[in-house]
Amino acid sequence: MSAALDRLLVILGEIADLQKSAALLEWDEQVYMPPGGAETHGQMVGTVRKLAHEMFVTDEVGRLLEQLATDDAGGDPDSDMARLVAVTARDYDKARRVPASFVAEQARILSASQQAWFQARATSSFATFQPHLERFIELKQRYISFFPPAAHPYDTLLDEFEPGTTTADVQAVFATLRPRQVALIRELAQRPQIDDTFLHVPYDEDALWAFSRTVVTAMGFDWTRGRQDRSAHPFATGIGSNDVRITSRHVPKEPLSLIFGSVHEAGHALYEQGIAPAFARHSLGAATSLGIHESQSRLWENLVGRSRPFWSHFYPALQQHFPAQLGGVPLDRFYRAINRVQPSLIRVEADEATYNLHVMLRVELEIALIEGRLQVRDLPEAWRAAMQDYLGLTPPDEATGVLQDIHWSIGAFGYFATYTLGNLISAQLWNAFGAAHPSRDTDMAAGDFSALLAWLRTTVHAPGRKYVPKEIVQRATGGGLDAEPYLRYLEEKYRAVYAG
Amino acid sequence: MSAALDRLLVILGEIADLQKSAALLEWDEQVYMPPGGAETHGQMVGTVRKLAHEMFVTDEVGRLLEQLATDDAGGDPDSDMARLVAVTARDYDKARRVPASFVAEQARILSASQQAWFQARATSSFATFQPHLERFIELKQRYISFFPPAAHPYDTLLDEFEPGTTTADVQAVFATLRPRQVALIRELAQRPQIDDTFLHVPYDEDALWAFSRTVVTAMGFDWTRGRQDRSAHPFATGIGSNDVRITSRHVPKEPLSLIFGSVHEAGHALYEQGIAPAFARHSLGAATSLGIHESQSRLWENLVGRSRPFWSHFYPALQQHFPAQLGGVPLDRFYRAINRVQPSLIRVEADEATYNLHVMLRVELEIALIEGRLQVRDLPEAWRAAMQDYLGLTPPDEATGVLQDIHWSIGAFGYFATYTLGNLISAQLWNAFGAAHPSRDTDMAAGDFSALLAWLRTTVHAPGRKYVPKEIVQRATGGGLDAEPYLRYLEEKYRAVYAG
Q1: How far is residue B497's CA from residue B351's CA, in Å, rounded to a whole number?
Q2: What's the rounded Cα separation, in Å, for the pair B157 and A415?
Q3: CB contact under 8 A, B243 and A37
Q4: What are phi and psi of A151, to 5 degrees?
Q5: What is the SS3 assignment for B156?
Q6: Which residues in chain A are classed under CATH 1.10.1370.30?
């Protein structure tokens, strides 16, 4: 190794240590921090992240990257080290383009904006939140101006969460998805509806936790390198691949959400646990994007966890945990109940067949806001129109409408699309794995996920940030981002579920 | 405020954020970290502490301190700001005297030494640990050489843990303590022994936790600014005064240790929760010494928690928690059982009346090693001789003798004395509080600790590091460090207990 690379790795290693420390502090905040610690913890995380940023944007890092790029010229551009230098240079360029004063301004308004959103949602008053959202739109446009002009201004925002994926990519898959998902929902609404009342009776929380743990263990979650706790909002976080933590919660009115939530978060966690150990302390040692992350959680939650083969294996054990609730419910009835489709107002409660419509609505509104085609003051009306259009519903108030998500209040524009990209990619990966492993469904019916996990490890997890999302998809499937596999999956599955 | 002070406070604030972050990482390591995370966490803590150190030892901090000392000349030397500058200058001087290469060398040998100690203890083989201990003694002598010569070389080591307290101070109180504590133990051994078999039967763990929580709450522990968890070794840690965490453990063969351990750690925690909020992000916002810290834990655990008035209040509730074990045991018998004296080999299991003898033995050996009067190879023999002398016992092997404590394996020389200093100071504070509050014992018998906590807050907690231990004692009692109050407490209490 060259001296320049040695030095860069020392710097990146310390930055990685700080980022992992911040991740642990944030985990603690959600899980164990006593309420009185909030202000102190905010300062701690702020300082740790600020120092990590300052250690990265130095002139020295710039010189090292330039020298390494020159030294590497003519070498294999796909080697780990060449990719490390390229990814780090991309991060560096981004970090240097955004002035510190801008970052500070954004941090300042974020806190007020989030407060205003909480209050606006509590009182269902969009007017309370409107000026903050206007301020954020202006800020995002300023952010975009720091970067070279892209084909679409929204590309710059999307790139934060889904590097290399463009607005045109997203719009293309949405154009395919939208009409067929809307049509599918309407078709299913005409069929006899599914009875799932036995899913909405009391279930013992301890038994739900115990069963979830069984499933997560079967998936291959490594408990020596991870743990599971309770939190108000389920999440997964990696403090390096050797310490990956998931959280879940019990929702009495939706008891099985503890199981599906655990499987979802464990899907995220398997990704983090699978990142190559060699990347642990530098820029490649993290997930490549939120979309790819979501492809993992959705694949396990839906393609695996809401499938018939999966439950043909696990249902007897679930019945043993809950004889009173499920003892008299045959597998087929249970399978149909957990796949009930019901257009609803709230994204986070949406089922698999309607979820993308919630996402598309938001992304389209975001793009219109950034383009300036839509004014913030007209957003509630635009939201209502789209909800009616896509899901046939009109929210009775703003709290269950335009104010339901936290994302805009914290300036996370460009984020929503990753949920749907994750869905689409999950089906693409699923098909690719199935083509390579014809025993996919019989393995699953035997509770054996080892081949699936091994394939995901190689194809998706281990590379970390070495490949951008499009490259991951290309390497796994031989093609590009494609809505067709997911649409076919939805149509086939739900026509069968509703044929019953 | 001057610009220099502003700037210093910004730097100290960020350093405090890093130190708190490291404290949380270390808490997590002991409490929730999955085992696979150990190496990653070690790197994280190492980097965070290293950056905190680097941010402190800069020339800029030195210049700011010099300027502030000049600006302040003629002002009130006891003002918070003057003390802040003085304490920070003391820390700075220490930090600058020790070369980075030395710190790195010590960190390198520490890991090997600790490993060797674990192995030596497991096999009861002193020879395995001997070279590491020799290395550490040499290292400590080198450390001492970085500082101006003190009256005694051990002073420099002691100052790390008990600033301003000297070897002569410690030797003076030990000279008073030793003969009378040895005589007391021998006297008690002649009396009829106390039956405590009912304390060594199975107690339900959940009920022990619930009762401990009741007691800790009554002491005044603020649960909105703290929490309690399980860990292999009980400890308390402050992540600033708004997030103070204690841990406890259930030891089936010594079930009530969960209660006394919780009270002990809560005593530490009340100190941390009571440090003045204004000091939160600078050098004064921490405990002034381990001895003062221990004075708080010991005061609550022993002076309060093993007293008759305390149990006259809490015993009925304890009996309700454990009717089978304690229903037929009257208060007096219980009180005598929890105060049974039994010379034993292991310090951490020692009772109140023998504990100091364990400590004195270690401190005397440490001083002899540092002076060069004692060679490491002769340590086991010296240990055995002292144990026989003080406690009338001879350890059957090295594991239960010279190898029992972790301290020397991690280079913590100068630490042991703080346990006994804590005991002595706890009795001095207790008497001072009693003199100011004649209702001390009746309050206690009513389960009311509010006056005690309020007095400790003002006298000990709030000042943080503003005063060194001797100043705390002086301000609380009007006198200096004194063994007499603790000796009188022990003699009176235990003669009464054993008169029964």
Answers
A1: 14
A2: 55
A3: yes
A4: -55, -35
A5: helix
A6: 125-500
pLDDT of residue B1: 62
Q: How many CB atoms lie within 10 A of CB B388?
A: 12
pTM, whole model, 2 decimals? Answer: 0.95
Q: What angle do CA A248, A251, A253 make, to 5 degrees?
A: 155
Q: How many Å lie between the alpha carbon of A225 and the closest alpha carbon of chain B?
A: 5
Tokens found for residue B443: 């309050």
How far is residue A139's CA from residue A105's CA, in Å, rounded to a whole number?
A: 9
Q: Which two tokens stand for residue A279?
A: 């990347």
User: Residue A1: what pLDDT?
Assistant: 62
Q: Which of A470, A452, A460 is nearest to A274 (CA)?
A: A460
Catalytic residue numbers of A, as ranges? 265
DSSP output for A422-475: HHHHHHHHHHHHHHH-TTHHHHHHTT--HHHHHHHIIIIITTTTSS-HHHHHHH
**B125-500 sits in which CATH class?**
mainly alpha
Q: Which two tokens stand for residue A496?
A: 């069968």
Distance CA A142, CA A149 (A): 12
Place of tokens 């301190």: B65
| Catalytic residue check, B66 | no
Name the one residue in this structure whose structure tokens are 């500070």.
A104
| Cα B428–Cα B431–Cα B436 angle in degrees, nearest 5 | 125
Probe site for chain A from B9, B14, B17, B30 (most A CB atoms < 10 A): B17
pLDDT tops 80 at residue B469: yes
Question: Distance, in angstroms, between A245 CA and closest chain B CA?
Answer: 9
Phi, psi of B245 (to 5 degrees): -120, 135
Across the interface, do B39 and A242 touch by the CB < 8 Å criterion?
Answer: yes
β B236-238/B226-230 pair status: unpaired
Predicted ipTM of the assembly: 0.93
| Cβ-based contacts under 8 A for chains A and B | 116
Q: What is the pLDDT of residue B94?
A: 96
Q: For residue A500, is pLDDT > 70?
A: no
What phi and psi, each to the nearest 5 degrees, are found at residue B188? -65, -30
Residues counted in chain B: 500
- C-alpha A243/C-alpha A224 separation (Å) is 8
Helix then strand then coil, in percent of chain A rounded to 5, is 70, 5, 30
Query: What are the residues of chain A with a beta carbon less than 8 Å away from any beta carbon of chain B?
Result: 13-14, 17-18, 20-21, 24-25, 28, 32-37, 39-41, 43-44, 46-48, 50-51, 222-227, 229, 239-240, 242-243, 280-281
The reported pLDDT for the residue numbered B76 is 93
Contact B24 A20 (CB under 8 A): no
Q: Own/partner pairs for A154-158, CB < 8 Å, 24+ apart?
A: A154/A366, A154/A367, A154/A370, A154/A371, A154/A414, A157/A366, A157/A370, A157/A413, A157/A414, A158/A414, A158/A417
Give me the residue label for tokens 């002073």.
B155
